From TrEMBL, chain A:
Keyword Cytoplasm: no
Annotated family: Belongs to the ABC transporter superfamily.
Organism in which the protein naturally occurs: Oryzicola mucosus
Any one GO BP annotation for this protein: L-amino acid transport
Protein name: ABC transporter ATP-binding protein
PANTHER family: HIGH-AFFINITY BRANCHED-CHAIN AMINO ACID TRANSPORT ATP-BINDING PROTEIN LIVF
Molecular function as annotated in GO: ATP binding; ATP hydrolysis activity; branched-chain amino acid transmembrane transporter activity
From TrEMBL, chain B:
TM annotation in the entry: 12-37, 71-90, 99-116, 145-164, 196-216, 228-250, 262-281
Protein name (record): Branched-chain amino acid ABC transporter permease
Alphabetized PANTHER family for the sequence: ABC TRANSPORTER ATP-BINDING PROTEIN (PTHR11795:SF442), BRANCHED-CHAIN AMINO ACID TRANSPORT SYSTEM PERMEASE PROTEIN LIVH (PTHR11795)
Localisation per UniProt entry: Cell membrane
InterPro entries for this protein: ABC_transp_permease (IPR001851), BCAA_transport_permease (IPR052157)
Membrane topology type: Multi-pass membrane protein
Pfam families, per database record: BPD_transp_2
GO biological process: amino acid transport
GO annotation, cellular component aspect: plasma membrane
Main localization, broad class: membrane
GO molecular function terms noted in the UniProt entry: transmembrane transporter activity
């Protein structure tokens, strides 16, 4: 079933031969992969493999990069961060980046509406009831799980249909991880296209269509969900578990 | 010695303290706003304050434009110059050590002050008060213009504070102070925001300059001499803290005035003594509280 | 290596012959500022500390040395040491306060304290206030050698300058200097290695203050007067410009920078404000386009040429 969808769906994002640098040290060495419309793709690999850098390069936060990143046919390399965001890409960073000088409400409503189709403030508060009761408290006073929910919720406001989520499950209790997993599945069901960076293989397995394995700044394997199931050993060897 | 001090002297000095404090507060606030977002100490702040006063003088003497329109025009003109400076000088330096930003703005201050001095000489130019006269309160004479300056600066400070703490625009600024890249990933044009914020801070400096023109002489050195105090104010108040800057500004104006009453010889140095004391007692700034220090 | 010795030889001949061709006072001014710029370079170039009020050391020492010469009859070298010692103490005091903050705030605090020192000296009874301290005698060197003529005195100043630059060179190339450079590049890493960066910064600051004091005292004996100008901000600003223009963190950079700026000031002395405007423009250009400074840029060009020849 997945394979049929794969062949039919249009390619939204195409990364070709992407290299990236932090100051003088090269972190990515020619990454290539495609993301199709409505797909949920994970980037998996060890710490320091280059997953986060890949997301940051797509978003333009890492400025020194070569190769090609096209989104709906537009070249992203050479564009500034806000220009990339305005094309319809939402980014939720690993550290969640909740603003301590802003209230929960201000954090949630900070991102502007860039495209129609984003969720309204009411809709968001309904979807994330915890945030409503804490609306006026300081953003960073929320629990880790709540901060993660807030970080995802606020980018849904912009109307972006393409999301980059960096390790949303990291450091959270199993119950909360489950909640986040359900949220991501709901988003997928609503037609969002998502790149998810994950180290938690069980979590990734539950939600993703395909897995891109990154090692030392290169793509070493691309697996479908079915392959991941049948060949866990191979994957575990990549992750070194 | 206290019986020798007349109430006229005390209230007169306190009024001067309040006036000076108003300028310290407005200038420090602009400096703190700029520092918060850009992490650059805008050494040109004094020169921009001086330019505000000079543009006001030039508008009146060459174009016949009086004080009230200048109150808007001069800050806008100087702010535009500031924004050009941000784009051409500060932006290329933004990824380097912020000391370069400090030195570059200092160089600009040196050039601007030198050019003005070359053109208009070192002695001050007079600018007559737009609200002449005053009221005798019995214990002192209160010129209307000074009352206007005090009230206007208080309103400006409160207004700017409300803008930053309680509006959407302010939320963008606060968020960008913390994590500019993340704010930009929401599709917000942060580079333009930096330019506009610098323009706002510079505009505040020029606005203070317009207010100062009828009180002090319009002179090339008015900026560099006040900068010394402003530096002390923001160090004491905690860098980038807007409330700290404003509160410290007014406080130091009054402290200076009180010193003039009690021990006039120390009036010039009391602010620096205060700074040294504050550094020894509260190394992170009097108002640094929960804010991060850099 | 051979070219280096040759270059040093040529330089030595030039320095020794210079007063036969140029006005000795101008030459001595340059030499005083060479020492002053070295002291500043030790801080900004090698420790990463921007002192925005270095004139407080230069000027205070000018007064102290002058006062010693005028009132005590000490010989020249002792008066100079007295001035440098006094500013070392001042440096210790200022360092203890200003080093509580780093980076830009350190710069602002030194700026404010320098103003404080300025006001104190304006008020102090022995400085002569606005008029300055006049007719400072050039007491005999070691109590023996007569140095009243500027021509002979030039060689004394030259000797002291060479010694100071050598001293600076030794500091920078000592293990202590290596730690300073490491602090400049990454002080957290230095801390994690078990060093206390604050202590090293303080020692560097005191050394720099003493060296700046030596320069100031020497200047007071060259001109035979000390004024408030010596402690004023323009002097602090000039030394920043000299160091950046010559080349931050290079040995010879500040020497070149001091020469250029003093000659430029001399040349523009009759053009009113244009000397300061020129300084501003040069500073801005250096910051925007030539952050390596004259020596740094020359070095880069030479390296490129050599690399091209080698390949």
């Amino acid at each position: 079933m997945t394979t049929e969808a794969e062949t039919l769906a249009r390619t939204v994002l195409s990364v070709e031969n992407l290299s990236a640098w932090y100051a003088e040290s090269k972190v990515l060495h020619g990454i290539s992969f495609d993301v199709r419309e409505g797909e949920l793709l994970t980037l998996i690999g060890r710490n320091g493999a280059g997953k986060t850098t890949t997301l940051r390069s797509i978003m333009g936060i890492v400025k020194k990069r070569t190769g090609s990143i096209t989104f709906n046919g537009d070249q992203l390399i050479g564009r500034r961060i806000y220009e990339i965001a305005r094309k319809g890409i939402g980014y939720c960073p690993e550290e969640r980046a909740i603003f301590s000088s802003l209230s929960v409400k201000e954090n949630l409503t900070l991102p502007p509406v860039l495209q129609s189709g984003g969720m309204g403030d009411e809709e968001l508060l309904e979807a994330f009831p915890n945030l409503r009761s804490r609306a006026s408290s300081q953003g960073t006073k929320l629990s880790g799980g709540e901060q993660q929910m807030l970080a995802i919720a606020r980018i849904l406001r912009t109307g972006s249909r393409f999301l980059l989520l960096d390790e949303p499950s990291e450091g959270l209790a199993p119950v909360v991880v489950k909640e986040i997993g359900e949220l991501i599945l709901r988003l997928k069901a609503r037609g969002f296209t998502i790149i998810l960076v994950e180290q938690n293989l069980r979590f990734a397995k539950r939600v993703a269509d395909r897995h891109v394995v990154v090692e030392n700044g290169k793509v070493v394997d691309i697996l479908s969900a079915a392959q991941l199931d049948s060949d866990m050993e191979r994957v575990q060897s990549y992750l070194g578990v | 010695m206290f019986d020798a001090i007349s109430p006229q002297l005390i209230f007169g000095q306190l009024l001067i303290g309040l006036i000076n404090g108003s300028f310290y507060a407005m200038l420090s606030m602009g400096l703190a706003i700029i520092f918060g977002l850009m992490h650059v100490v805008n050494f040109a702040h004094g020169a921009q304050y001086m330019l505000g006063a000079f543009v006001t003088w030039v508008l009146l003497n060459y174009l016949g434009i009086p004080y009230w329109p200048s109150l808007v025009l001069a800050p806008v003109i100087v702010a535009v110059l500031g924004m050009v400076m941000e784009r051409t000088i500060l932006r290329p330096l933004q990824n380097l050590d912020h000391l370069y930003g400090l030195l570059a703005t200092y160089a600009v201050a040196l050039i601007v002050e030198g050019l003005i001095r070359q053109q208009y000489g070192s002695s001050g130019l007079p600018y007559s008060s737009p609200i002449p006269g005053g009221v005798n309160l019995g214990f002192m004479f209160l010129p209307y213009y000074r009352l206007w300056v005090v009230l206007f600066s208080i309103v400006t400070c409160i207004g700017s504070w409300l803008l930053i703490e309680h509006t959407k625009l302010g939320a963008y600024l606060r968020a960008a102070n913390e994590k500019p890249d993340i704010v930009e990933t929401f599709g917000i044009n942060v580079p333009r925001m930096v330019t506009l914020t610098y323009g706002f801070g510079v505009g505040l400096a020029a606005l203070s300059g317009v207010l100062a023109a009828p009180i002090y002489q319009v002179s090339p050195s008015m900026g560099s001499s006040i900068m010394i105090v402003i530096f002390a104010v923001v160090v004491i108040g905690g860098m980038g803290s807007i409330i700290g800057a404003v509160a410290t500004g007014y406080m130091l104006g009054l402290v200076e005035a009180l010193t003039k009453i009690v021990y006039p010889e120390a009036a010039n140095v009391v602010i620096f003594l205060f700074m040294i004391l504050a550094l020894l007692v509260r190394p992170n700034g009097l108002f640094s509280g929960a804010e991060k220090t850099r | 290596m051979m070219t280096r010795i040759l270059l040093l030889g040529v330089l030595a001949v030039l320095l020794i012959a210079a007063p036969f061709f140029a006005y000795p006072v101008t030459l001595m001014t340059i030499l005083c500022f060479v020492i002053f710029a070295c002291s500043f370079n030790l801080l900004l170039g090698y420790t990463g500390l921007l002192c925005f009020g270095h004139a407080m050391f230069f000027g205070s020492a000018a007064y102290v040395t002058g006062y010693l010469l005028k009132t005590t009859g000490l010989s020249l070298e002792l008066a100079l040491l007295g001035g440098a010692g006094a500013t070392a103490l001042l440096g210790l005091f200022v360092g203890l306060i200003a080093l509580r903050r780093s980076g830009i705030q350190f710069a602002m605090i030194t700026f404010a304290i320098a103003q404080f020192v300025y006001f104190l000296l304006l008020r102090a009874p022995f400085t002569g206030g606005e008029d300055g301290m006049q007719s400072i005698p050039r007491s005999a060197l070691f109590g023996v050698f007569d140095i009243s003529s500027s021509f002979t005195f030039y060689y004394v100043v030259l000797g002291i300058t060479v010694l100071s630059v050598w001293f600076f060179y030794r500091i920078v190339h000592s293990p202590f200097g290596e730690v300073l450079k490491a602090i400049r590049d990454n002080d957290q890493r230095v801390e994690s290695l078990g060093f206390k960066p604050e202590r090293f910064k303080l020692v560097a600051f005191v050394l720099s203050a003493a060296l700046a004091g030596l320069a100031g005292g020497l200047k007071a004996t060259v001109f035979q007067f000390a004024t408030l100008t010596d402690v004023s901000f323009p002097i602090s600003s000039e030394v920043i410009l000299m160091t950046l223009l010559g080349g931050l963190g290079t040995l010879s950079g500040p020497i070149v920078g001091a020469g250029i700026i003093i000659l430029l000031n001399d040349y523009l002395a009759d053009f009113g404000e244009w000397a300061l405007i020129a300084q501003g423009v040069i500073l801005l250009l250096v910051i925007m386009f030539f952050r390596r400074g004259v020596v740094g840029e020359l070095d880069r060009v030479l390296r490129k040429i050599r690399a091209r020849r080698a390949s």
